[in-house]
Amino acid sequence: MTKSTLSKFLLGGCFLLLTSCEEILFEKDISKNEVILVAPVNNAQFFSTGVTFTWETVQEATKYKLQIAKPNFTDPLQIVLDTIITNTSFTHQLAIGSYEWRVQASNESYSTNYSSSFFTVVNNADFQSNIVILNTPVSNLITKTAVQSLSWQPIMDASAYQIKVIDGSNNIISDQSITGTSLNFTFPEGTYQWRVRANNGTQKTPDSSRSILVDTTAPNNPVLSSPANASTTANKSFSFQWTRTPILGSIEKDSIYIYTDSALNSLQQKKEANSPFVTNLDLGIFYWYVKSFDQAGNVSNKSAVFSFTIN
Questions:
Q1: What is the rounded distance in angstroms from the CA atom of residue 29 to the CA atom of residue 111?
Q2: Rounded Cα distance, 134 and 211, in Å
Q3: Please, which domain of life does this record's source organism belong to (predicted)?
Q4: How many CB atoms lie within 10 A of CB 82?
Q5: Residue at which a domain ends, from 125, 150, 170
Q6: What is the CATH number of the domain that holds 55?
Q7: How many domains in the chain?
Q8: Do 51 and 89 fall into the same domain?
Q9: 29: closest CA among 52, 1, 68, 59?
């Protein structure tokens, strides 16, 4: 096969497998890039057990592998952490001891070499510099589930954890101290911030906080208006119209369903839409209704089912 023939063959293959070829042609080779570690600096010493690891962004990287070994990767007694994240900062609680940490950047096709550094957690005398690492629920959760398990990572030498729940008007609706690292809490509907801090009797950490929106109410049922029920028209272009009274809470959206049979088995169109919704249809009898959904996962009942005929 000549070079010319081979080039044509590969080009033809790219047309046939366009997505695959685009990945091959446009995925950036980052294998020679270096991950620049920011903190902790090499041979840093900590007097608190919470350590925040940061590094510079690697252009065209989509994820980073962060690993921590005790005492090092050459003769590890333990791989303390092995995780993949998409940002360039990560906080972790560690026992007293010596460690090596390293980061590798990657995309779908290429990876850099690891960059590594050493540090030591000397003791936990600087208790107030620790950071409570929150586990669940995730930050900015929007949910219809009122009962949530609030959980966080333990901090060495903590004797108790203070948990506050604050509403959207900055009112404290719950303030309690527990010795464990989780608490089941039932949120009323609304937007809240929950905060956790640790104390050891004399010292307190800063608050760690996350937000949550709880919405347990389904959207109101849509009310259809046009085309009128059992109407007939010769126009194949339709403007579907309906109304719905919104409810405060998570974002609400409507979906329209158009069928060609009264049993609602043959779906012609289904689309997230706002009123008015314009579409073209062929000749025949059609049946339609609208349902509403919200971001928390609540669903309304479907509206009344209207029919119309195009002849």
A1: 8
A2: 11
A3: Bacteria
A4: 10
A5: 125
A6: 2.60.40.10
A7: 3
A8: yes
A9: 59
Q: Is the pLDDT score of 4 beyond 90?
A: no
Q: Can you state the angle between helices 3-16 and 18-26, rounded to 10 degrees?
A: 110
Strand partners, 191: 213
Residue 286 lies in a domain: yes
Three-state secondary structure call for residue 57: coil
Domain interval for residue 241: 223-310
**Beta carbons of 257 and 289 less than 8 angstroms apart:** yes
Strand pairing category for 44-46 and 50-55: unpaired
In a domain, 140, yes or no: yes
- Token look-up 């060495």 returns 156
- For residue 54, what are the CA distances in angstroms to 89, 122, 127? 4, 20, 21
Terminal CA-CA length for the chain: 61
Residue recorded with tokens 């050891």: 200
pTM recorded for the entire structure? 0.79
**Tokens 């360039």, residue located:** 88
pLDDT level of residue 15 (50, 70, 90 thresholds): very low
